[in-house]
Amino acid sequence: MTAHPVIPQFTAHNGFGLPAIGLGTYALNGDAGADAVAGAIEAGYRLVDSAFNYENEGSVGRGVAAADVDRAEIIVTTKLPGRHHASAQARTSIEESRSRLGLDITDLHLIHWPNPSQDEYVQAWAALVDAQQRGVVRQIGVSNFLPEHLERIERETGVRPVVNQIEVHPYFPQEEQLAYHREHGILTEAWSPLGRAKALLDESVIAEIASAHGISAAQTVLAWHVARGVVSIPKASSLAHQTSNLAAAEIVLDDAEVAAITALGRADGRLFGADPRSHEES
Which single residue of 45, 56, 99, 195 could bond 200 by disulfide (Cβ 3.0 to 4.6 Å)? Predict the structure, then answer.
């Protein structure tokens, strides 16, 4: 039996831990999606990330059920969509996600976007707090929240998120937000951790570091996330890519290499300009 990589764990303010690398599932749908999820879990993944709006919770749940791994070892994440922020809708959406996933309890449930002009994200957060108290969700967090959003939901409910899933990659390193998360014991998860442009993986500094370690450009970027204490959730459908990504958790970059990659950051580094102050998700 092939040994799985040793995956570092990062810990939130309440002791909840996440592995440094998980599986993103955006666009992993249908039977192929379920097979990809099951294969990833059997290859060593213990964190699987989905969302109501990915329209694949059913496939993700079937993949989790099909994997020959103890369910208790797997952290299944989903997200509440923007159109379900109002209290009653949020409660129903949380229950619907659990049904689609085929789980008695969701391990980690996030608010997908704050949608500040809608101004109902506090209601959505209160619904997640209630779901956790009722025992239908284990841990609760957010996605794409800025410090002002994080401070408001904690001030109004007394509950601090364990996770904030945000855009982080070398073109958008988010140093200030990461520092805020560390100070408050909030785990950072990176969506699109490899960016979405081939240009990033072709950067000479990444190529040089990859060559020095005998690894791929993608593994170099994932190792950069690990070194910064960021949980990355790259999407991969093939077993080869899944295992390659997971192996990056064991690669150690030195401080100079981490700094050199971070220096790729750009003022306009967001992938599609989705600023949480104004972006609205349906």
Answer: 195
